[in-house]
Amino acid sequence: MKASPEHQNLLIELQLIDTAISHLKIKLANLPEHEQITAIHTRLENTAVELAVVETELADVAIDLRRVEVDVEQVADRISKDESRLSSGTGSPKELEQLQHELATLAKRKSELEDGELEVMLKHDGVKARVDELLNDQVGLKQLELELNIRLENATTEIQSEIGTRQTERAQLAPKIEVSLIELYEKVRASNDGVGAALLVGNKCEGCHLSINAIEIERIKSLPADEIIRCEECRRILVRI
Prior knowledge:
This protein has a 4-stranded mixed sheet with strand order 2-1-4-3. 76% of the residues lie in helices and 5% in strands. Helix 1 (5-29) packs antiparallel against helix 3 (93-173) and helix 2 (32-88) runs antiparallel to helix 3 (93-173). The chain is rod-shaped and about 135 Å long. It is mainly alpha-helical and 241 residues long. The chain folds into 2 domains: 5-23 and 178-240, no CATH class; 31-174, Helix Hairpins, CATH 1.10.287.1700. The chain is built from 5 helices and 4 strands.
């Protein structure tokens, strides 16, 4: 197969454009924001699960707290009534003595209930603090997700614009190259990681970066400039410089 040196050089230009487009597409698919947003989604899901558990615990503790508060209030009311009766002095000495014993028992019971109330209140405050912390985490994560989405959108727009520019360059360049050469290039490129043509620099193929043996190099040198040559190792089209 033959193609003028000019068309072969244009093929290298086309390869450079195709390589640039390939690299841009890889960059687009691997923008760090993709992974960061996925990580945030995972954290948000985990936070939501924990929040549901902690909010349920908070509701249970709130019920326990109210129950203890009612018990303390009831004992306090009973103490108040007994103290009023004792202060009035009405009743027999035996009844007044029983009131004093009952007040002592109620005071002890009230002290025990208040200790329990304090313990439940501390637990309630701790669980409430964890709920608030998780809610704040959600707000922070959602804000970060919003910022990352904006960055991702901007980066995506920029890269897509670059890809569009390169594709326009390709569309303008490809028609200038012989159809048969383009067809061979596309066939080779499809089976060689997107690289269908490479420069021959000295005795090295810039496609596979392997050296070509001396006999083959001498054969290549003997060929006319318009002869299409292929790398023995990777079978890419080699363009002499």
